[in-house]
User: What shape does this take?
Amino acid sequence: MPDRKQLVTLSLVVLFGLHSGFCGAQDDSGVYMGNGIKIGELTSDSVIVWTRLTSVAAPDPEGILFRNFGEKDFFVNANILDEQMGPSGGYAFQLPQGASLEEAAGAVPGTKGDVRVTFTERGNEDSKRVLGWTPVEDDRDFTRHFKLEGLKSDTEYSLTVEGRKSAASPISAVLRSSFETAPPKDRSSRVLFTVVTGTRHSSRDDGDKGHKFFRAMLALRPEFFVHTGDIVYYDLLDPYTTHIDLARFRWNRLFGLPNTRDFHNAVPSYFMKDDHDSWQNDCWPTMPPRMGLFTYQQGGLVYGEQVPMSERRYRTFRWGKDLQIWLVEVRDFRSPNHDPDGPQKTMWGKEQVAWFKQTVEASDATFRILISPTPMVGPDHLWKADLSDNHADPEWSHEGDMLREFISAQKNMYFITGDRHWQYVSRHHETGMLEYSSGPSTDVHATTMANTDHSQLLYYRPKGGFLAVEVSRLDGVPTATFRHYGVTGEVFNEDVRAAD
Assistant: This one.
C-alpha cells in the first residue's frame, strides 16, 4: 500500500448563508451534519458511510444541564416515576421543569431531509459514482447508511456527502473526506491501526472539544480505528437512560464533540459494543429490566442506528498478506453471568465460536489478531470473582479455557481487549497467550487494578490513552509492533513481535 495520502482537513461546509461552527443556531431553510460522518466496515472492495441530518451545526455546550442528583436520590426519584411512566419514560425529572431534551447541553437534534454520496478514485474523474438523493430515516434517528461497493483495492477515494431539506431546497451542507481501501490478500503492505475503549462523555479531558486522544491518534494517520465498546454509558447519570430518546441523545452528544467528529470524518472505523452501550453494567439479554422503558433490545437497535455495521456483529477483515483481524460480539449471545460454569454456559454462542475457529484456521494471513470488548487473560479486579463478567474471571473458565487453548495454538496470533480501565500486556500462565489492553480514553477514566497478583503482567500502566499496532516488514521479516500511547501521544510501551 502506498503511504497514506495527507488526511483531508474535515469541516462542515455550509452554503447559502447558514450557520456553521460550534454553536446551536437553527435555520428552518436548511439542514446540517452536526455529527459529521462515520466511514466503517472498510474492506478491499467496499465501505459503509454513515450519515445523519441535524437541525444544528454543532452541539451547544451552554445548553440546559441535567439536574445534579446524588446517586441515591436519583434512584429514589426514578423508582417513583417508573410507577407512573409516561411517553417520556420518566426522564423529565432529570431536566429542569419545562425544559425539553433538545435544549439540553450537548444536544444535536435530528431533522428530516435528503442525503447524497459521491465518490471518485483519486485522480480519475471518469470513475465518479453518485448514490442519489435518499431521505434519512426519521424512525432511525434521522440516519442513513450507504454501502459503497465495487471499489478497487489499495485505492484512495475522495468522498463527498451532501444534505438538503427537500427536493425543492438548495444543498445546505457539504462534507468532504477521503478513504483508502484495504490492500489485496496477496500483497504485503504496512498497516497501522489504533484501538481504544471507554469514551464516557463526562470523562473527557479537552473541555468542549471532547477527548484529547482523538487528536493524538489522528496525528499517526492510521489506516483504521477499532472502538472496543463502552462508547457511551447508558446506565450512568447525566442522563440515566430510561427511554430510547435518552440513548440516542447520548450518542449524538458524544459524536457532536469536535475532536470525536473530526476524527471519524477522516479515519475509517470498526465498532464493537460492550455492556454500557448494550444496556447496563455487566448485562446479558435476559437480565431483568431496571431502566424504565429502555430495554436491552432497544439498546441493540440504537447501536445499529448509530454506527456503520455489517449484517452480523461478529466479523473478520483482511488487510493485505500480513494482517487479518477478528471482531467479536460478547453480549447478544451470553448466558446469565451467575449461571454455573460448564459446557452449556457461553458468552459467544455456539455459532460464533464455530465461525471463529473455522475462519481462523482458513486464514493464511501472517498475523491474526483477535479484538474483543472483554479480556481473556487479565488479571481482573479481585472483587470481580463474585461478579464474573469476562473470560478472565473464574465463573467463565470452561469456555475461556477452550478459547485460550485454541488461540495459543495458532501461529502469530495475538489478542487485544478493551473494557479494562488500565493499560497492560499480560501472558497467560498455562497457555502463554498474550493479551494487550488498550486502556481507557482518558486519565480521568483510568483506575488502578485492585489485585496484588501481577505475575502475568509484562507491562502495566493505570492511565488513559490508546493502543497502536503497526504491521510491516523489517528487513524482509513480517513484524507486528504494539505501542501503548498516552492521551497526548507519548509512547509508554513498545512490544515488537517478529513473525514465527
In short: Helices lie at 71-82, 213-220, 244-255, 258-266, 296-306, 350-362, 397-408.
